[in-house]
Amino acid sequence: MDSRTIEDWASAYIALQQDGGRALDGHPLFWAAERFMFPGDTASAEDCWATILEILARNPPEPILAVLAAGPLEDLIHYVGPEFIDRIELQ
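-> structure tokens emitted (91 positions)
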């Protein structure tokens, strides 16, 4: 995934969460949360990690950080943690 796509995904995720996020599965930006769910292979997990870092770089409000940690980051750790734990700990 290119950097522009990662930036768009991060923007959409933040906007979705500002609109209430999880309760809005019919929201037009819900794809941004759904894309994080169950990263099935290393390539998609790498994209998830890059997008998490992009969201963090934007210094979003605390509620968005909480949802990011309890959702996408938690899922990444659960599904591919051994491959990412060193990078996660470094961050």
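The chain has a mean pLDDT of 91.
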